[in-house]
Amino acid sequence: xxxxxxxxxxxxxxxxxxxxxxxxxxxxxxxxxxxxxxxxxxxxxxxxxxxxxxxxxxxxxxxxxxxxxxxxxxxxxxxxxxxxxxxxxxxxxxxxxxxxxxxxxxxxxxxxxxxxxxxxxxxxxxxxxxxxxxxxxxxxxxxxxxxxxxxxxxxxxxxxxxxxxxxxxxxxxxxxxxxxxxxxxxxxxxxxxxxxxxxxxxxxxxxxxxxxxxxxxxx
Length: 219
Prior knowledge:
63% helix; 9 helices; 219 residues; mainly alpha
């Protein structure tokens, strides 16, 4: 039997939120409240704004069932719900959203599109990827459970804040950009890059202090 993936928990979200807090502080914000907006997160993830607020406040994310049939039904409903959300947004923008029009644009039959919208057909990658591309949403938007979708978005926010802090630190050191090289199996994270930058800035401060103390009086 194939092992099922580990699902994101409230503890995982809380850990990520702490990282967002630290990253926000690095670029001059007081806390996550300055960089997190439930409505914006809802647009990016497909999670209802009210539910985003609950998850940010510590609610346990809904977990897909473990049983095969129940799990398949869960994902059919999830894809249908997210696809209907995208269709509603497009309709509000004045775009016609008939099954036939959608199907023609993504090379799927209108019957299949109808099954996906109604949650009566599993959305394989061959089906979901062109639909996600059509609506301009990230890969996995239609099928990521709320915990995974929120965690992925929070990670993007955190990394964006850390990138800003890194850029600011490089400018303070007199540089414009950094050329990254690494050895090993994985590239450095934004956190490890900032730690290295902090070490460089501390070393520069120590050198400047040492030079100032060694200068003759009256110079």
